[in-house]
């Protein structure tokens, strides 16, 4: 599905990513973990094209993405929900959803109904401005917008940040449902360990710009957590 091979990224002469290798298989949810500032968000940005690696390869279903612009990568099947959600606060929920379809040239084909089934609270707030929604509701809207682009892989950057526990559980259940539908794989950047353990299939851990551990989520034991994740 998604393969990163030997990705290297530098900012202003400082090396941020050091030979990152990562694979997201079909029908899977992979958790990318690590302490703050180790390169997780930069890895996602290198996949969607907001950061251009100086070396390495990014392939989706065998198609090389490295020369593509972000909008081309999105049309190839990469959906992205950044940290902070980035909804349009002065547009209504419905306008946010519709804009996603228009920008990506996608026909609805029942997809709006599908995302409203996944996130039923949005159906109640279609005419409400995005900026007045709670953080959890905005996160649901951001994920719904990404799903309307009909991605093959969904990149999520810290979707539980600043969200109340009951909404975290709801988002987790929804991501599991999306995965089980068998159409979309998910790469999740997340620091909330219990969330990853509950929904992940496998994990990678980064430190200082490199992948330092990985494997099935069941192998994420206390020793690994203490070594690479505990602050």
Describe this structure in words.
With 231 residues, the chain is α/β, with parallel strands linked by helices. Helices cover 36% and strands 26% of the residues. The chain has nine helices and ten strands. The chain has helices at 40-48, 70-76, 93-103, 111-118, 120-124, 135-147, 165-180, 193-199, 222-228; strands at 2-11, 14-24, 29-33, 55-60, 63-64, 78-81, 153-157, 185-189, 202-207, 210-216. The strands form two sheets. A six-stranded mixed β-sheet has the order 6-7-8-3-9-10, sandwiched between helices. Strands 2-1-4-5 form a four-stranded antiparallel β-sheet, with helices on one face. Helix 3 runs parallel beside helix 6. The model has no long low-confidence stretch (mean pLDDT 92).
Helix/strand layout:
Elements (H helix, E strand, L loop, with lengths): L1 E10 L2 E11 L4 E5 L6 H9 L6 E6 L2 E2 L5 H7 L1 E4 L11 H11 L7 H8 L1 H5 L10 H13 L5 E5 L7 H16 L4 E5 L3 H7 L2 E6 L2 E7 L5 H7 L3
Parallel strand pairs: 3-8, 3-9, 6-7, 7-8
Antiparallel strand pairs: 1-2, 1-4, 4-5, 9-10
Helix pairs in contact: 3-6
């Amino acid at each position: 599905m998604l393969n990163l091979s030997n990705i290297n990224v530098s900012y202003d002469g400082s090396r941020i990513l050091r030979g990152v290798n990562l694979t997201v298989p079909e029908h899977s949810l992979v958790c990318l973990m690590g302490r703050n500032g180790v390169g997780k968000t930069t890895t996602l940005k290198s996949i969607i094209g907001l950061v251009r690696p100086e070396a390495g390869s990014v392939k989706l279903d065998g198609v090389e993405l490295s020369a593509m612009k972000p909008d081309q990568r999105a049309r190839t099947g990469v959906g992205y929900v950044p940290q902070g959600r980035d909804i349009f606060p002065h547009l209504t929920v419905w306008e946010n959803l519709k804009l996603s379809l228009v920008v990506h040239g996608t026909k609805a084909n029942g997809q709006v109904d599908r995302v409203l089934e996944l996130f039923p609270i949005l159906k109640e707030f279609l005419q409400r401005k995005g900026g007045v929604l709670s953080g959890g509701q905005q996160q649901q809207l951001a994920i719904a917008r990404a799903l309307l682009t009909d991605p093959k892989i969904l990149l999520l950057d810290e979707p539980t940040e600043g969200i109340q526990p009951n909404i975290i559980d709801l988002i987790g259940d929804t991501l599991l449902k999306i995965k089980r539908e068998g159409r979309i794989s998910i790469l999740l950047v997340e620091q909330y360990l219990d969330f990853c353990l509950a929904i992940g299939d496998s994990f990678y851990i980064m430190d200082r710009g490199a992948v330092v551990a990985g494997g099935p989520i069941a192998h994420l034991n206390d020793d690994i957590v203490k070594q690479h994740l505990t602050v």
